[in-house]
Amino acid sequence: MMAQYLEIKEQYPHALLFYRMGDFYEMFFKDAEEAAQALDIALTKRGKHLGEDIAMCGVPVHSAENYLLTLIRKGFRVAVCEQMEDPAEAKKRGSKSVVRRDVVRLVTPGTLTEDSLLEARRHNFLAAYAEMRDGAALAWVDISTGAFHVMPLAAVKLGPELARLTPSELLVSEADEPGLRALGEDFGISLTPLARASYDTASATKRLTELFRVGTLDSYGQFTRPEVSAMGALVDYLEITQKGKLPLLRPPVREAMEGTVQIDAATRRNLEITHAMTGGRAGSLLQAIDRTVTPLGARLLERRVASPSRSLTVITERLDAVDYAHSNTRTAADLRALLRKVPDLDRALSRLSLERGGPRDLTAIRNALSQAEQLAARLGNASSLPQLLAKSAHAFSGQEALHALLDVALVAEPPLLARDGGFIAKGFHEELDEVRRLRDEGRGVVAAMQGRYAEETGINSLKIKHNNVLGYFIEVTATHGDKMLSPPLSERFKHRQTTANQLRFTTPELSDLETRILNAAGQAQGIEQQLFAQLREKVLEAAPALTQLSQALAEFDLATGLADLSRSDNWVRPKVDMSRSLRIDAGRHPVVEQALRREGAPFIANDCALMPDGPHSAAIWLLTGPNMAGKSTFLRQNALIALLAQMGSHVPADGAHIGLVSQIFSRVGASDDLARGRSTFMVEMVETAAILNQADDRALVILDEIGRGTATYDGLSIAWATLEHLHETNRARALFATHYHEMTQLSKRLSGVENATVSVREHEGEVIFLHEVRMGAADRSYGVQVAKLAGLPDSVVARAREVLASLEDNARKGGGNPRAVIDDLPLFAAAPPPPPAPNIPPQMLAVSELLSEVHPDDLSPREALEVLYRLKEAAKG
């Protein structure tokens, strides 16, 4: 056995080998040591190899999925090795014969299909990158849903696209792997190098045409050599990991970068589009707007919010769909009630295609078809629907025959695994019903046969009995022996044994019944397996139509979910056109507003008007004001509103006019990159450089505190030059927040720049944040007041006020170098700590408190006496 293990392990040196032994997957040698540590399970030993103990650990087959998930998340790959024959068959070859085993699947981060290993509301993409002399391309697939996409891209655009897709695993050529290793680490993506042969375009073309059973790929689009290479590498890897059982992939969809709003990795992180800064989904835009009720709709929402469209036609269609659901409240509520019962059609279909599906996947298809028919009935005439929903509604019908077949064939609540049986409904298959009757009601069947034989022979005392030697037999008393041994009964009943008082017989019918009863369980399981395979084939024949149904269900779920959000949170439809305006009336930050609402606090809405084509031609707002006043929130909310509009959603505002945005750039917040030796300021400059080098005249740029990570004059110079570049060269729409008040003078020199500020109010030395944005410039930053709010010691705050007053006085008088002012300031004098409180007994404190309340001149003699008594009691404690 160990020789077989080592032989199989040699073929998968970079994966843990799950070696099936009965009810366990066993691991040996180094695999066992690594798995035991990763899974926190016992490490034992089994025999010796080359004089050394063989390390061993194992996990139960029935709970292997949980262990697989842990291993995959910790960066392992797992080769699942199953027993390919019954142990009884192996024994026929000899007592020492080893059960034949082989790897049936290589489990990797990008090839998961089980529900327990996947997040229902997220895609799990496997991507492949191909770079050639004539360009580069990225292809990606979700084998759990069948989605298959490819796009050409420049090498420098790989990072932003990986940030958009967040694949679990990226396939790269062996030659490219060293240069891309850091990128994979940055995004937390498992990098898998493939041999150059996997990227050969001729072989790739052959693989793809065979997969989709077409003579040429031209029917799916005109693909470049790098695109074909990347797609071919994906298919090759799937053949390797799935051992030839390819998933049910949809024809490849070619995407173009110019079709979606370009958002780089830093901007996605800063805006917290699909993930919050903490890394989870909570606190992100996606989490805040997700009202979908199906996994299908949730994954579509994630795709839309990660890839807003730049097509005015597409955006308008999506907005029309949301408008319909928003206006038809009752219909939308009924549709959502029906959609709540829709299972994950895509993933059920994928598992069935990979032969990993079970009875519950068939019932998922059945239930989805049932809900689709009810949706069609509720919608009635689709002609009243907007175009996007009308096209989708056609997919709700047309599979009535398949639905009827699955409905009559399957029980309501089937088991998880086909081998468990019991999922075919009674009455669907006559032979199966008979076998089950024998299996479950054997005694009743025998009793019925006994009654027939008693009636046929006229012997009422005839019995059918069973023992371990003869099996089933017919028994009569000796008094009826002659009758049974004489024609015509002797021709039907064959004598088997005579005892002192009984005679025993059998019939061909009884022997057959005995065989069928003994084999009934196995026969029932075999018949159900055959029926499962037939039903699976029927479902796969309808796969294209089921894929369209899945997309239609997702579209309705998303439209009704966004409409529900719009109604409950008072959102409006934005006007999106080809202008370059960005006007938002009373805009709100969707995530912050929800957080404040949970605390019972209001969100202060604000307007924004970047109107490069208007009479004032103001494309840039220069925003000043103190920290904590809401500048960053204001910057982010306007970028998110533009993003929401172009993904096809209503927006959190009283009104919005969005001129089509091509790119969104954000430089907000401070962070360092110690692993690459980058300071906070260096990271800031790298991200700012990326914006200035890429932003076009349709970009929307939000910048916060450029230059703050270095010396004052250096920072001011960089911020000044950055704003001028945005205005003169990029000509982009921008919100530019700064504490450098000197920059407000630029509004007089640059025609497209206007000053705006976040209002505050100062009262008795305290600052009150109003969170209101108005036109104009702030006269100060209120940094000292904010420092006091943060809890700095009073002595530090007082010293800061002293230094600030001297510097401001010097500036008002036209003073020169501020260093001279600093040199003239007295040294910092920390306030002495307060003296320790004296150790006063509690009784004396009570007496002191009473005395403080006494006014001797106002007391009568009697009142004075009462006070004296009270003081005496207080002193006693």
From TrEMBL:
Lineage: Bacteria, Pseudomonadati, Pseudomonadota, Alphaproteobacteria, Rhodobacterales
Family annotation (PROSITE patterns): DNA_MISMATCH_REPAIR_2
Keyword annotations: ATP-binding, DNA damage, DNA repair, DNA-binding, Nucleotide-binding
CDD domains linked to this entry: ABC_MutS1
Any GO CC annotation of this UniProt entry: cytosol
Protein name in the entry: DNA mismatch repair protein MutS
Family listed: Belongs to the DNA mismatch repair MutS family.
Organism per entry: Pseudooceanicola albus
InterPro entries according to UniProt: DNA_mismatch_repair_MutS (IPR005748), DNA_mismatch_repair_MutS-lik_N (IPR007695), DNA_mismatch_repair_MutS/MSH (IPR017261), DNA_mismatch_repair_MutS_C (IPR000432), DNA_mismatch_repair_MutS_clamp (IPR007861), DNA_mismatch_repair_MutS_core (IPR007696), DNA_mismatch_repair_MutS_N (IPR016151), DNA_mismatch_repair_MutS_sf (IPR036187)
Domain of life (superkingdom): Bacteria
UniProt-recorded Gene Ontology molecular function terms: ATP binding; ATP-dependent DNA damage sensor activity; damaged DNA binding; mismatched DNA binding
One of the GO biological process terms: mismatch repair
Residues that coordinate or bind ATP: 625-632
Function: This protein is involved in the repair of mismatches in DNA. It is possible that it carries out the mismatch recognition step. This protein has a weak ATPase activity.
SMART domains (UniProt xref): MUTSac, MUTSd
